[in-house]
Structures are given as C-alpha cells and as structure tokens.
Amino acid sequence: MRALRAEGVIRGYHADIDLGALGRHVQALIAVTIRPPTREIVEAFRNWVGDLPELVGAFVLSGDADFLLHVAVPDTNALYAFVVDRLTERPEVASVNSSVVYEHIRRTVLEPLPPAR
C-alpha cells in the first residue's frame, strides 16, 4: 500500500456513500453540449457545475457532448427542475440529454491490465 501511494497509484481513500440514505433516490447521467465550445466558456461552465449540490461527478468529453454529468436528486421532479431550471438557463448550454440510472455497478478493486500484444 505504501509503495502504491508513493508511486501515485493510490491518490486517496473515499467513503462509499448510499445516495438513497441521503434522500437522493434518483440518479441520472446528463450529456451537455456547450456552444460556442471555447476554452473560456467550457472552463466557466466546468467551474459552475462543480459547485452544484446535485453533482456527484462530471466528465469533460470529446465527441458530440462536451460534458457528462452524474447527478443524484430526491425524485424525478427534482431531476426535471435541475435540467430545466438550472442547466438550460445557462446561455452556453446548446443541448441536454438525460438518462436515468437504474443501477450503478462499480468495481471496488482494479488491477493493472495485461500488456498489449
């Protein structure tokens, strides 16, 4: 463990949170497209979204969407309000595509991949 920490493989330790126990029973992945996709606008949106209490995590992407947001909210009404009242109020948001998460399967142990042949 010490060697993995020293090499930077292990960067920290985190609690496994039961979102439902926090009243966040609905999770969603939301693809967001930003226009125009300038560095300044993308970074400003990233900073804004990073402070939202609904956010569990965010990815900055290449491809059709610029961001993939993982949010957890109390119910579908709260999800609708988040998308319509928070995200689409931003002038740089060109499109939003939401997918409700039925189940989140996460690996708790990761091992190095075998070398490519």
UniProtKB/TrEMBL annotation:
Domain Transcription regulator AsnC/Lrp ligand binding: 33-103
InterPro entries: Dimeric_a/b-barrel, Tscrpt_reg_AsnC-like, Tscrpt_reg_AsnC/Lrp_C
Gene3D superfamilies noted in UniProt: 3.30.70.920
Superkingdom of the source species: Bacteria
Protein's name in the database: Lrp/AsnC family transcriptional regulator
